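quick one before i forget lol
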Amino acid sequence: MIKCAIIGVSGGRARGLAEAYRHVSRGRLVAVSSRQRDKLEAFGSAFGVPAMYTDYREMFERERPDLVHVNTPPSVRLEIFKAAEAAGVPAVLVEKPLAIQGEDYLAIQAFARISRVKIAVNHQLHFHPRRNLLQRQVRDGAIGNLRFIEASAGMNPAYQGTHALQAISAFNPDAAPLDVFGQVSGAEGLAETPRHHYAPDECTGVVNFDNGVSALLRCGAVAPRVIVGGTINVHKRIAVYGERGFVHWTMHGWETRIDNKHERGEHVYAEEDLLGQAAMTEAMIDWLADDTAVHPLNIEAALSDFSVILGIYESALSRSVVTLPFSPSPDLVGKLRNALA
């Protein structure tokens, strides 16, 4: 049985991680860590976690977990990765976004090249049962050769933009981004906060891939609304167009038109999310057992996706197309703050 742990127990994501273990057959949650003692004890009690720590390094040393979920602000990602490497932790599943701007992106990229830790990013939507089925249909050629992908999210690039970008990659998995042309607006999301999820409020980006597919990404107020009303976080969606039809997934439903046959339906996001989280964790356990069973949300794929976000920022500031991969200029967040103030 794989021993699993969580760092950071605040908010709904931590609860979702713990609840998913009801559906994880090969792993159990043995420890949690948080600097906030009251939240730590409440979480541990709620989910029956036997070991609780205010210092995750002590947790690494004493519990020797096989898999660690990192549910912290992105400002401490690299610190935790290095501590995991030093403690011999085999695998880490980290919350998105992986990074915030060029400096931490490049530092994480350099670490990943030499690290023995298997790292994947928590884009659990990839494993939602309905979206996973649509991904398999597209991969198996149901809509023919791909032509265009359009993905969007109601929140800004740091909060949900990487979800939308990963969705593009999930439906176009064997292609590499060649260039991006982007625009951004709104400085509210660039204000200093404890969560460090800094990003402009809205963005658009046109991405070209080496297999001839083009994709449009929209985040924030420029993104279409999935349902009438609803909170800002409920508007994630993706549409994929091919020679023979299209597939469309949203947080609330799905639609396909393939060879003139039209189908559609609804799903309950919370139920899909619980099963998706569990399947994502099981896939990490597969990778632990077999080096060839590389997790689809592995850090190299996540870094490629995040380079597109940085490319949108660079493109908006320079008013030009950015060829990928590229080396981002220093302090993109600071430059965006100045430009959008």
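fyi The chain has a mean pLDDT of 96.
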